[in-house]
Amino acid sequence: MTLQNHEVAPLLIALHHTTGINVLSANGRSSKPVTDLDVGTILAFRSSLPEGMSEEIAHRFLIGNPASVAPLVYLITSALIEGDLPAAAKLLRVATLYAPKHPGISLLHAFAACQRGDLVRMTGCLSRAAQQSASNESLLDFTQHFLRGMLIRANAAPPARLGMIAYQRGGQVTIAVAVPGRRPPFEVKIAITHRATRRTVPVPLKEWTFLEGFTLLLGEFSLPMEVSVNHPCGIAFADDGTSFVNAPLAPLSDDVEIGIHAVRLPALPAPSRPVEPAAPMSVDIIIPVYQRPDLLDRLLTTLLIDLPDARIERLIIIDDASDPFTARYLEGLGEVLGRKFILLRNRENLGFLESCNRAFSASQAPFVILLNSDIELPAGWLDRMMAPFVHDASIGLVTPLATSGANLTVNLRPGQDWREADAIAAQRSPRYADACTAIGYCLAIRRTALPTGPLFDPAYAHGYGEDSDLHYRVKSRGARSVICDNLVVHHHGSASYLLQPDLSRIQARNRRVFFSRWGQTHIAEELSYNLSGSLRHLMDRHGNFNALMANQSVDVLFILPTDALQYGGVRATVSLVEFLVARGWNAKILCLTESEQIALSWRGGVRPYVDLNHVLRDITELTLVVPTCIDTIETARLLSSHFKAPILWFLQGPEAYFDGGKTFPAFRDALRDVDHIVCVSDYLKNFVRTLSGRSVATIPFGPNPLVFYPRTGKPRRPRSIAMSIPGSVEKGAGLALPVAEVLREQGFSLSFFGKRTDTAEALAGFGEVHGFLEPAKMAQLFSQVEYYLDFSLYEGLGLLPLEAAFCGAVPVMTRKGAPETIFTHAQDAVFIDNFLDIETVARTIAGIDQPSLEDLRRGGQALVRRVGEQRGYAAFESCLKGLGLTPQGPGRGLLYQCPKQE
User: What does the alpha-carbon distance between residue 495 and residue 490 come to, in Å, rounded to a whole number?
Assistant: First the structure.
């Protein structure tokens, strides 16, 4: 396709750079308007050649005189103008062979890469041109026209509103920024971050020139001598619709990062809503459920607000033979969800696919939305989900973006939560591009677009690949399957599906079925989808969201020592932050760990910061700093000083005892210095009062009873014990091996879980070793054993013993620490005075008869009425309000319909 006139300007710059033809003046203005530029001579030169002669002529010219590149530039430029990328690529290969160091050829390479949508390759070519060029003026000419062309490119809907290119020559970095209008109606700040020194330096921008609707701003700075440049060029574009945008460039080096910092875009008028058809768009919502009432509870919290919507006819939940606890939870939903709620039950576990088919057959509405039970929905989701059907009558399937959604995954940026990502996406004009495949975590369906028969093909038994199969069956009938690109949902990711023991076998079998039917079609469509860049206006090629709210006023910043969710204290804090965000608080997390760890392991809905510099960059006002352990106190003090914010220490353990008492001086000083302290147990409250004389608040923290409850899928193994693998002396590292050996000799079966250490390798000889377990799998283990043995000498709360007790495994533990203030010996737990007396430990456990064991089990399960996650959440929020804080927006709490234990 021939380029438009405004797109030709960068090529003419490259032509001038190599041939001296003066089509544009040195100050970036054209000698005549760009729209009037005559490129006929260029096009005529190529069209006058016989077919196939272009490449041969190029070789003839350059073999004799490599410096004579003008005819070749004519040929390449004309091929690019006509949109003949294959011919241009051939000619560029010739040019590179004979004139590899010519800056004009590098510019043409950059333009060709841009036309292919390969911005990474394009920045590399611009980098090479920067190094090869003797003058900066021509490079700036090319840059400004290129930026303008990208900002008004025809295939952008809407076009980007701001563009930036940075490149370095001889240690001098030039940054060019293009913004619409003669005088930018917003503020643009460029920030240079020196990673080694953790300094952010602002770079002043000056107005350079005005070019046909766009102002070009220019900034320059010098790199420090010690900085080695790995990536000499970077590029970024900011789309419309956000209050603030942060669009970092690919770093110039491992030491320097350039970012468009705090770009204030003017508010856009709200997009006009499409006129709905006269017939109401009634919709049924289907949710298949297997276990995991905790995640369903989060989903229903958002649905409760939307349920009165007249478009929703029925909310159909189908229970796929879940455990009795989940069944009782579902039975209690009728009073909450009202008359639209329909509960279906499978007598036996049929799997995801058959459950969906059965619920779909019970549905009657012309539109159906299928929701996985492990997603969370933002405000206003239903309007955006149904809008594509109004937009285009040929659309049959609609899938939104998700935090875990295969090729529709949005990777949150550090400091971002999924609701923020959705708020940014919601302000953008949707494109409804064709999807590569539909994905069943959140799928809207037009009934008339479906082929006859069941919703999903039963050939994909138990689920996996059935949604992709539906995608191609719908497309084969002439309907479209599109992306709802202005909606982001939070998807926990196969949370209940992962509980199936034969998951890998199911996936392998269904993959074979899918590729036998749609293999060639799918591969071709996947390639086309990847090349099309359908989501380039939202994210980069790695799936990283390309916008971030900056200049934020943050209510609470929690500081964690690590991102490792397998540690109970970290997991509890992250869950608390997610609760506060859902309640309308602007809460963030800073992890003092390497970003590579975060990228590999983080799956939560609130992505933590991993760089203190980024916290200082994005946050302009902070109300409260919350350190969570002694290792985070120093960072909390720094942030408190910078933002003039008080410190609330969320104290979870008696850290004065840790590491042989080496932390005691720092711990004692911190108790006296911080502004406020909140503890997770009365034991810690008394501990703090003894050391500092201060009165502190206590929150009744504990496990989530919708996760930790007795599963009844398998009977408990008689004389069975679960043990955590101790990782330190405080956790009883020296006791595990001798106690395990004696218990095995007494006929007990042992199961170990936790970090795989040398101790874990040794314990493998005494029983099964699981490594770290997800909470749901931990609850499964606790539901299969009779006892949980805990060697910890100093527990600030005793989260693991509580989780075991909630699931019916009797805790056996030391009296030291918080457990003695929560548990009662011989009523809901067994206390051991001296674990070193191993024979007594074994006799004590072996001497508990079955009636006493059942009494202990009932007593442990009754603790759910005294402590728990939800009570801790509510108490912490009350603590924040007691300090005078208020959330910034309306929030949604958790439904938390916990059934009574039987």
Answer: 12
Cβ-defined contacts of 686-691 (< 8 Å, 24+): 687/654, 687/656, 688/651, 691/656, 691/667
pTM for this one? 0.71
pLDDT band at 704 (very low <50, low <70, confident <90, very high): very high
As a whole number of angstroms, the distance between CA 746 and CA 871 comes to: 40
Q: What is residue 376's predicted lDDT score, i.e. its pLDDT?
A: 93
Cβ count within 10 A of residue 344: 16
Side chain identity at residue 427, one-letter code: Q
Mean pLDDT of 61-84: 60
DSSP string, 770-795: --S--HHHHHHHHTT-SEEEE--S--
Q: What angle do CA 498, 501, 502 make, to 5 degrees?
A: 100
- pLDDT (0 to 100) of residue 276: 43
Buried b or exposed e, range 257-288, using 16+ CB within 10 angstroms: bbbbbbbbbeeeeeeeeeeeeeeebebbbbbb
Nearest to 648 by CA among 686, 582, 694, 591: 694
Predicted local confidence at residue 17, as pLDDT: 47
Tell me the two tokens of residue 80.
């690019």
Cβ 608 vs Cβ 602: under 8 Å: yes
Is residue 810 very low, low, confident or very high in pLDDT (cuts 50, 70, 90)? very high
Distances (CA, A) of 586 to 171, 419, 493: 40, 11, 25
Length of the chain: 902
Give 114: exposed, middle or buried? Use CB within 10 Å, 0-12, 13-18, 19+: buried
Could you give the CA distance from residue 537 to residue 475 in angstroms, rounded to a whole number?
Answer: 25
pLDDT at 190: 57
Average pLDDT over residues 36-49: 47
- Measured CA to CA, the distance from residue 416 to residue 76 in angstroms comes to 44
Q: What is the distance between the alpha carbons of residues 445 and 368, in angstroms, rounded to a whole number?
A: 5
Strand 787-790 relative to strand 810-814: parallel, antiparallel, unpaired? Answer: parallel
Residue 271 DSSP symbol: P
User: What dihedral angle (degrees, nearest 10) is formed by the CA atoms of 769, 772, 773, 779?
Assistant: 70
Q: How far is CA 413 from the centre of its chain?
A: 7
Q: CA–CA separation, 528 vs 579, rounded Å?
A: 40
273, amino acid identity: R
Most confidently modeled range among 95-109, 207-221, 222-236? 95-109
pLDDT given for residue 115 in this prediction: 65
Q: In whole angstroms, what separates CA 258 from the centre of its chain?
A: 23
